[in-house]
Amino acid sequence: MKEFEATITDLSHDGKGVTRIDGKAVFVSGALLGEEVKLRIRKRHRHYDEAEVVELLTRSPHRVEPRCRHFGQCGGCSLQHLDAVSQIEVKQRVLKDNFERIGKVMPDTWLPPLTDEPWGYRRKGRLSVRSVAKKGRVLVGFREESNPRFVADITQCEVVHPSLGPKIGLLAELVSGMDAAADIPQIEFAAGDDVVALVFRHMVPLSERDQAALIAFGKQHGFAIYLQPGGVTSVHPLWPEAPRLAFNIPSGDAAFADVELEFRPLDFVQVNAGMNRRMMARAMELLDPQPTDRVLDLFCGLGNFTLPIGRRVAEVVGVEGEHGLVERAAENAARNGITHARFEVANLFEDQRHAHWAKQSWDKLLLDPPRAGADKVLEYLPHKETQRIVYVSCHPGSLARDAGILVQKHGFRLSAAGVMDMFPHTAHVESIALFER
C-alpha cells in the first residue's frame, strides 16, 4: 500500500498514535505523540484508517526500548515503548478529558497516581491456544496486535506472573505433544500468594497420556493443574487433589488483622496484586470507615473491599450478582472471623430499589462496577443519609458519566480523583474517586 509521511498529534484511548491524512483520522500502531513518521495504511474503514510505522523520522524524547521482544506483534501491551512517567500522564489526561467531556465535572483535588512494580504483575489472565498446521506446532499467547483473530507467536511474557511468564514457550511445547493439541482453545492462569493455577479448557475428553503429561508438567514447574471440559462449573483440579488459592490483603493498620481471601481459578480477582494492596489503602483512606458506620459495598465480588471494611465498621453489606462469588465471600468472612459483614445476591444492572438493602440508610457507599458503570444503581441510590462515596472504576467514560449523575442529580461534589496503574504498559485506565455530600 501507499506510504505517507505524517506528524502524530495525539494518542488514542488504546495507545495508538493519531494523525490525519486528507482530513481522515488515522490510528498508527507504535507511534508516539509528537513523532514524525512514515506510515503504511494496513486497513481502511469508512471514518478512519489503521496504519503501521514504516520508519521513524523523528523520535519522541519519551520513547524507550520495549523490554519484551514480542512487543508490536503481541497485542497484550500497547505502551512498552513509552516511558513510565509518560504512561501515567497519558492515563491522567484520558481521565481528565472524560470528566470534562462526558461528566461536565472536575475534581476539587487530583490524587497522586498510584503505581507499583510494572513487570510480572499480571496474576490473572487467559492465554489463547491455536494449533497451526502451516507451522506444524501449537501457539500459546495473547492475540496479535495487528490481527486479533490470530494468536501471537511468543515464547515468554514480561508482564505475566514471573512463575509463568518465562514459560509460555514451554506451555506451547506441552500442548503440541498432546493427543488433544487441536482441541484445547485456551489456558487460563490464576496466581495466589503461594500457588499458580493453570486451567486447560478442552473440547474432547483427555486421554490418560495427556493427563499424565499435564500432571508431570505441573509437578516439574510447580503449577496446580485444572481441567475445564465444559462451562465454568465444570472446572476441577487434576493435580494436586485439592489446591488452595488465596491472597493476603494487609490491613495497613496495626489495630486490625490482615484479611486472606480464598478464591477459585476462574473467579474475578484484581489482576495486579501489588496495586490491589495500594488501592485498598487508598480506598480506606478516602472512605474513612468509622466504628459506628453502616457501609454498602456494591459489585463486591469476593469481598475484596467488604472484608477489610468489615474489620472497622458496625455493619457492611456486600452486594454481587454472581452466586458463587457471594458464597465464597461469606466463607471468607467466616474464615477471617469478620462478623460485621454480610452478603446479598442481586443483579445490579436490574432495578433493585425494592430490595431490603436498597431501602435501608447507609452512611457510606463503595462502588466497584465493571466497565458498564453504575448508572442503573444510581437511579435509586444513594439515599440522602449517605454522606460519602468511594467509586473504583475500570473505565473512565462510565466513571465520568456516573460522576455527572452523582453531582447533578444527587447533590454530591467530586472531592478527589486519580488514576491507578493497574495494567502497566497498556492503555487501560483504572481510577478512584471520592464524592462527598
Automatic annotation (TrEMBL):
A Pfam family reported for this protein in Swiss-Prot or TrEMBL: TRAM
InterPro entries according to UniProt: 23S_rRNA_MeTrfase_RlmD, MeTrfase_TrmA_AS, MeTrfase_TrmA_CS, NA-bd_OB-fold, SAM-dependent_MTases_sf, TRAM_dom, U5_MeTrfase_fam
Coiled-coil ranges from the UniProt annotation: none
EC class name: transferase
Gene3D superfamilies: 2.40.50.1070, Nucleic acid-binding proteins (2.40.50.140), Vaccinia Virus protein VP39 (3.40.50.150)
Active site residues according to the UniProt entry: C394 (nucleophile), C394
Chain ranges of the TRAM domain: 1-55
Keywords from the UniProt entry: 4Fe-4S, Iron, Iron-sulfur, Metal-binding, Methyltransferase, rRNA processing, S-adenosyl-L-methionine, Transferase
The keyword Methyltransferase is annotated on this UniProt entry: yes
Binding positions (S-adenosyl-L-methionine): Q270, F299, N304, E320, N347, D368
An individual GO BP term: methylation
Catalytic activity, EC: 2.1.1.190
Record-linked NCBIfam families: PRK13168.1, rumA
Family (UniProt): Belongs to the class I-like SAM-binding methyltransferase superfamily. RNA M5U methyltransferase family. RlmD subfamily.
Name of the protein in question: 23S rRNA (uracil(1939)-C(5))-methyltransferase RlmD
Biological source species: Dyella japonica
